[in-house]
Amino acid sequence: MWTWRQGRHMGEDGPMPEMPEVQGLVDFLGERAAGRTVRRAQVAAISALKTYDPLLDALVDREISDVTRRGKFAVIAAGAELHLVFHLAKAGWLRWYEKLPATVIKPGRSPIALRVALDDGSGFDLTEAGTKKSLAVYVVRDPADVPGVARLGPDPLDDAFTRDAFARILAGRRTQIKGLLRDQSIIAGIGNAYSDEILHAARMSPYALAAERSEAEIDRLYEAMRTTLGAAVKAASGRPPADLKDAKRRGMAVHGRSGETCPICGDTVRSVYFADRSLEYCPTCQTGGKTLADRRLSRLLK
């Protein structure tokens, strides 16, 4: 059994998956599930299923034709007319089985939210730990019928997402660059971890205002985004799901490394904590040596 867990923030089981890890997961599922026929689809956590038309049972006896990614969403195509779309959110897992267990799922008494059985005996579970249930599953005729997918901005590694296209996104936006990179409606797939890594590589403060970036800074930020995400996708490629979160963690220069040494300059990596997450940065590389105030203690420094 391969297990891939979506980790949780601030030092729990591992970093949450973003575009590179979802791409690795999609590649893994595509290699094993494409060409297989769905024999059973069973929901065990009704809160996870966000749609009712088409019914989940409509997937049964359909052949999986493709597995793709939209931002942080995985899209399983069951022919051209039906799609199973899921987003693992903060505490989701995917467990792949070469031989699916015969145990009966007991709703409300198991972390399993969804089980999909395939015609060769293999299959997978989507599970969710903890009490805050955010994992989302959709059965739709078109992936764009999922509101989160419909709102997605451009993919940062798409060939059409040029430096000039990026500059147009930044222009006129008086918002902090960290928040802009994380906004899925502006750029799809980047989350808390990779926005930290991109800003570190670009030598830019997370609080820098998007609209005030110089041409040279835009060049640097665009190159950092493409390089950082491209390397992460390559690192995730071909890995079994169980290895994805550890590969992500090992590749981080600053995210999740508060108190450790910056690999570029040797300064100490610092954190700023928010209600449900933290950001990490290097003062020497990114803020001219200035330490950003921890929101738990005082107001943020501009």
Automatic annotation (TrEMBL):
Catalytic activity entry: Hydrolysis of DNA containing ring-opened 7-methylguanine residues, releasing 2,6-diamino-4-hydroxy-5-(N-methyl)formamidopyrimidine; 2'-deoxyribonucleotide-(2'-deoxyribose 5'-phosphate)-2'-deoxyribonucleotide-DNA = a 3'-end 2'-deoxyribonucleotide-(2,3-dehydro-2,3-deoxyribose 5'-phosphate)-DNA + a 5'-end 5'-phospho-2'-deoxyribonucleoside-DNA + H(+)
Cofactor dependence: Zn(2+)
Domain Formamidopyrimidine-DNA glycosylase catalytic: 17-135
Keywords for the protein's UniProt record, in alphabetical order: DNA damage, DNA repair, DNA-binding, Glycosidase, Hydrolase, Lyase, Metal-binding, Multifunctional enzyme, Zinc, Zinc-finger
GO molecular-function terms, A-Z: 8-oxo-7,8-dihydroguanine DNA N-glycosylase activity; class I DNA-(apurinic or apyrimidinic site) endonuclease activity; damaged DNA binding; zinc ion binding
Residues of the FPG-type domain: 253-287
Gene Ontology biological process: base-excision repair
Family the UniProt entry places it in: Belongs to the FPG family.
Protein name: Formamidopyrimidine-DNA glycosylase
Organism (species): Microbacterium faecale
Organism phylogeny: Bacteria, Bacillati, Actinomycetota, Actinomycetes, Micrococcales
